[in-house]
What we know:
Elements: H1 6-20, E1 24-30, E2 35-37, E3 45-48, E4 51-55, E5 62-63, E6 66-67, E7 76-79, E8 82-86, H2 90-93, E9 95-98, E10 100-103, E11 106-109, E12 113-117, E13 130-133, E14 138-140, E15 150-156, E16 169-171, E17 178-180, E18 189-197, E19 203-205, E20 209-214, E21 224-227, E22 232-236, E23 241-244, E24 246-248, E25 253-258, E26 269-271, E27 276-279, E28 288-296, E29 299-310, E30 315-318, E31 323-326, E32 331-334, E33 336-338, E34 344-349, E35 357-359, E36 362-365, E37 374-382, E38 385-396
Parallel strand pairs: 2-12, 13-20, 22-29, 31-38
Antiparallel strand pairs: 1-4, 3-8, 5-6, 5-9, 7-8, 9-12, 10-11, 14-17, 15-18, 16-17, 18-19, 18-20, 21-24, 23-27, 25-28, 26-27, 28-29, 30-33, 32-36, 34-37, 35-36, 37-38
Amino acid sequence: MKMLLPWELLILLSLKECLANTRHGPVFTQEPSDSIFPLSTDDKQVFINCKAKGNPPPHYWKVDGRDINTESEPNYSLVEGNLLINNPHVINHGGVYQCIATNTFGTVVSREAKVQFALQNFNRKSRNMVSVREGQAVVLLCGPPPHYGIKYSWVFNGQRSFLQQDARRFISQRTGNLYIAKVEASDEGNYTCAVRNMMTNATVFSSPTPVVVRRDVMGEYEPKIEVQFPDTLHVSKGLSVKLECFALGPVPSISWRRADGNPLPGKIKINHSSGVLEIPYFRPEDAGVYECVAENSRGRNVARGQLIFHVEHLHWVQTLKDAHMAIDANLQWECKAIGKPSPVYRWLKNGQQGRIHVEAGRLTISRISLLDSGMYQCVAENEHGAVYASSELKVVG
Length: 397
C-alpha cells in the first residue's frame, strides 16, 4: 500500500473535515406517528418522537396549527428534538401535532400525528327512566366518554358479572348501546354501561338507566334491523373485520350469506347468538357484498354492505433529489405516489404554500433567482393519509 506524503495527507484530512461540515437544510430521520396514550394516575408524561439532522442544527414543534412555546407553556419541553408533555390533560394536550425542522437554509414539516387519550370518565348526571311495554323492543344508549381502544359491557342491577348476550340481547362494540329485541317482565331494573380500556384494563361506569316494564303486552311484528354494518367498507390485506347485525322484534334468527351466491369462506367465524360475523386475515377473495337476513314468524328483512379489498397503502414510487442550480436556470421537480384512491398533490416551500407553479403534481420554477433557495416538499394525500418527500434547492450565484 502506498504511503501518503505529508501534503497529500493534509489535503485528505482537510477534504474529510470539509465534507463533515457541509452546511445543508434540515432532513427528518424520525417523524411522529399517531398515538393513543392511556390516561390514569400513573401516566404523568407523553413522549412524541421526532428527530432531524441539519447544519446548522434545526429546531421544532406545532399543535393544531399553532406554534408550541416551551418557555411559556410549562407542560411542554424538548428532549433532543422530541416533544415531552408533562402532566397531560385530555382537553389541553390531545390534538394534531407536527414537527417543524428549520435552520438558515429553510424549513420542512413532518407528517401530522394525532395524539389521543384512551379513556375518560362518564358524565355523572342521572339518567332518565325508560318505560317500555312487555313484548316491545328497547335500545339503551351507552353515551361513552371520549375513548380509544375499548370494549363495551353492561351491568344489570349492580351484579358482579356482566350481562350475557344472547339471541334476545345484543351489545354493539361500535356504539356501546344495548339492544333488547323483545322485552320480558324480568328485564325490569337498572342498567349500567361499562367501558374497559384495553390498554390498561381500567373500567369506568355510567350512571344507571332505570327500565320499567309496563304490563300492557305489545303484539308481534316483523323484524326491524337496528344494527347493521356500513354500506361500503375498505379493508386492508391481513386485517380482521367484524360485521354487526341485530334486529328488534319477536326474537328473530340472524343468518349470513354472500350476495353473489358463493359460499362463505371457511375461515369465517359467526356468532349466531350475538349477530357478529368475523373474517380473519382478509384477502382479495373475501371482498364482495355480504347480506344479513333477520327472520321471524311475522316476516324477514335484509341488510347488505360491500367489503372492498384495500389494495395499497399510500407510498412513493418517485421522490425528489436535492438540486444545485444557477441563476436564471429552469427547474422542474416531479413526485409520484400510488394508493387507492389515487392521491392528490400539493407543494410546500419552507413549510408553506407560496409563490410556486404546480401542475399535475409537477413543480416548475422558471428563471431561478436567489430568493428561490430553500427547502421544498411534495405532499401526496388521499382519504387514508399523507406522505411527504423533501429536497433542498441551492442557487449558485
